[in-house]
């Protein structure tokens, strides 16, 4: 893009939000962090600050001699230190007399349940660590995990950590091709999978998909299969083994050996805009410090009394950091749920909150907007008074969705932490601290103590107010250590756009009070008549109309304005609303510049299986292009319907 196309503000700041939510007296009375002491301490010496967190929150076998070795873009943390991540998540709690504390309240989609204490989880993990060893897995090897949301997923991950093997979890909703690509890139020795899992009232087969992948994965020597779905599977003699049979025969004792702080803990593949998925590398000591610290302070965790529930799948980084490593390292009691939010009814989540007395709920804006669509009467059927704190992650949360979450789930009394981070950052980077930060609906507020984030313009100059690109200026302990097998791509993707800065790929703006507002990926930023407008802001404006449940906005090439704003809108409960009224509403909320050129009313939107709207597809539809790869879509029929509507609309012109 030519520099003279650029307006002075890199991304125009159009939406103003005046609502404020200071920490309540109730939370302030019993919070871990009231006031600014953590921020002050970190600002004075960030390395020393992280070192204190590592010493206070993590158990080490050998202390480190050097806090940080920073050779841009490579960081090493806590050099010379040794620890075992599984020991930190399990043994130390049992040794402290907490073996009977519930680690997991697991709920299967059909309604079956399991209660697993820390002592029981430690027992399973030791046995499975021995199983992996008996199958030839050694320190430094990779193990692939392709499982439903069952406790064995956490067991398998922790067993790898215990023996120093790196896991690579592939989301159970991914195809056999995606699984094969990831296994081959990591050259994994063992695959842990299940016969199938439960989803929306049916059994979805996993082993058959794994079998297809296994036709082209020569590195795999053994496959361990958990029985969950009860569906028929084929077992290959000598290669495939039932989990329960191996576990029954396994030695129950597997001592936790000390690992180097920089021992590879896991690979997690994330897709970029182009090219093959990137194997993001995370190591042990720094990562564990980061997720333990953030899980404790962002969720203001009181492990003796809290019941925490993160609704993510373990196949995503949120499941790694905030179901497995952070909560277990903190000795938390949590809920783990196998299925979808609308089985058997649209109130399943609220039933679970009531049943287990969940106090902290961590979910995603896409889920919240879906709940809005289903209506406030669903949560109203249940007693949600146990909730005291709500979290959001995954994409910008529109102010209206924030307010709905606050009122209808939080009963108007729960602070909301909107947590910005990425697979690459390992843990939360930007978020309120619930007892210390006054929140504004839709803003992730400020970098956490120890984190240095800055917004810069196109030339890499720091922006004090207004829009730009979000960058991170200092290394942090949970940061990715690279891309597996591709150091060049690591440097190019994250460190080449702005000298000396990690560029996260997101647009952000700073308001007059210094609050950060995430504006989505920069490839989601439109350029309309020389104004850069965030798709998120237009979406938020649309969603603030009472008849709108969900909106997706894309920029489509336009001869006159460069890009034109195209909106796809789902109405609330099928409400009837005129397109002209919605355009006028956006104009009133943001300004005429942001008025969508075309609005399609649609019953659904194309989403990935992780719930992210596939804007690339919407752009293709808007620009009348042939559609590329739609295999990662949750429901491919949505796109056909959108195309039909686009063709109909064109015919109307
Ligand atoms: C991208 C990272 C972090 C775990 C789940 C996603 C977007 C994430 C927020 C937030 C605005 C957010 C960003 C980021 N994102 N959280 N609170 N507000 N945007 O992990 O798949 O690596 O995606 O998700 O665009 O770059 P991921």
Can you tell me about this structure?
This protein is α/β, with parallel strands linked by helices and 653 residues long. It folds into two domains: 136 residues, 2-Layer Sandwich (GMP Synthetase, Chain A, domain 3), CATH 3.30.300; 486 residues, ANL, N-terminal domain (Rossmann fold, 3-Layer(aba) Sandwich), CATH 3.40.50. The protein is built from 20 helices and 29 strands. The strands form eight sheets. The protein has a seven-stranded mixed β-sheet, sandwiched between helices. Strands 12-11-8-6-7-14-15 form a seven-stranded mixed β-sheet, with helices on both faces. The N terminus is likely disordered. It binds 5'-O-[(S)-butoxy(hydroxy)phosphoryl]adenosine. 5'-O-[(S)-butoxy(hydroxy)phosphoryl]adenosine binds next to helix 11, strand 23 and strand 24.
């Amino acid at each position: 893009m030519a520099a003279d196309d650029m307006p002075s503000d890199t991304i125009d700041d159009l939406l103003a939000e005046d609502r404020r939510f200071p920490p309540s007296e109730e939370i302030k009375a019993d919070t871990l962090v009231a006031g600014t002491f953590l921020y002050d301490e970190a600002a004075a010496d960030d390395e020393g600050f992280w070192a204190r967190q590592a010493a206070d929150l993590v158990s080490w076998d050998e202390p480190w001699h050097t806090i940080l070795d920073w050779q841009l873009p490579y960081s090493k943390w806590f050099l010379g230190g040794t620890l075992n991540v599984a020991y930190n998540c399990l043994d130390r709690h049992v040794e402290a007399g907490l073996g009977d504390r519930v680690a997991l309240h697991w709920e299967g989609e059909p309604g079956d349940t399991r209660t697993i204490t820390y002592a029981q989880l430690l027992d399973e993990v030791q046995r499975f660590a021995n199983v992996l060893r008996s199958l030839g897995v050694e320190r430094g090897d990779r193990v692939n995990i392709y499982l439903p949301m069952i406790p064995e997923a956490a067991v398998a991950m922790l067993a790898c950590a215990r023996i120093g093997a790196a896991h690579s979890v592939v989301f159970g909703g991914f195809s056999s091709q995606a699984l094969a690509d990831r296994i081959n890139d990591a050259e994994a020795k063992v695959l842990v999978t299940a016969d199938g899992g439960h989803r929306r009232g049916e059994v979805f087969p996993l082993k058959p998909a794994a079998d297809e992948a296994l036709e082209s994965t020569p590195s795999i020597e053994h496959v361990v299969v958990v029985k969950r779905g009860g569906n028929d599977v084929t077992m290959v003699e000598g290669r495939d083994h039932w989990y329960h049979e191996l576990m029954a025969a396994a030695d129950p004792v597997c001592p936790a050996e000390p690992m180097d702080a920089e021992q590879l803990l896991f690979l997690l593949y994330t897709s970029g805009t182009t090219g093959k998925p990137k194997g993001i590398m995370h190591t042990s000591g720094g990562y564990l410090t980061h997720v333990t610290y953030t899980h404790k302070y962002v969720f203001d965790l009181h492990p003796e009394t809290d019941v925490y529930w993160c609704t993510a799948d373990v196949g995503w980084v949120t499941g790694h950091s905030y179901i497995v490593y952070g909560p277990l390292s903190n000795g938390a009691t949590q809920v783990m749920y196998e299925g979808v939010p609308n089985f058997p009814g649209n109130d399943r989540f609220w039933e679970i909150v009531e049943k287990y007395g969940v106090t902290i709920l961590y979910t995603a804006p896409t889920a919240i907007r879906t709940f809005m669509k289903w209506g406030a009467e669903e949560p109203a059927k249940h007693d949600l008074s146990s909730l005291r704190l709500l979290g959001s992650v995954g994409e910008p949360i529109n102010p209206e969705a924030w307010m709905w979450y606050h009122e209808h789930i939080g009963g108007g009394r729960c602070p909301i932490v909107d947590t910005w981070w990425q697979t690459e950052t390992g843990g939360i980077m930007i978020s309120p601290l619930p007892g210390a930060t006054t929140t504004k609906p839709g803003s992730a507020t400020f970098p956490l103590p120890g984190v240095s984030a800055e917004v810069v313009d196109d030339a890499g100059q720091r922006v004090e107010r207004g829009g730009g690109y979000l960058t991170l200026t200092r290394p942090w302990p949970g940061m990715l250590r690279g891309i597996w097998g591709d150091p060049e791509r690591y440097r190019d993707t994250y460190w080449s756009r702005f000298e000396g800065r990690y560029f996260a790929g997101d647009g952000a703006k700073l308001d007059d009070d210094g609050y950060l507002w995430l504006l989505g990926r920069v490839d989601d930023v439109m350029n309309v008549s020389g104004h850069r407008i965030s798709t998120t802001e237009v979406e938020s404006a649309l969603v603030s109309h009472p008849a709108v449940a969900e909106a997706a906005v894309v920029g489509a090439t336009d001869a006159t304005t460069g890009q034109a704003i195209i909106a796809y809108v789902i109405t609330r409960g099928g409400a009837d609303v005129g397109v002209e009224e919605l355009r006028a509403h956006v104009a009133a909320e943001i300004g005429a510049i942001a008025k969508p050129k075309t609005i399609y009313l649609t019953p659904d939107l194309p989403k990935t299986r992780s719930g992210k709207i596939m804007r690339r597809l919407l752009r293709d539809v808007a620009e009348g292009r042939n559609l590329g790869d739609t295999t990662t879509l949750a429901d491919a029929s949505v796109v056909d319907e959108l195309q039909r509507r686009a063709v109909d609309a064109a015919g109307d012109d």
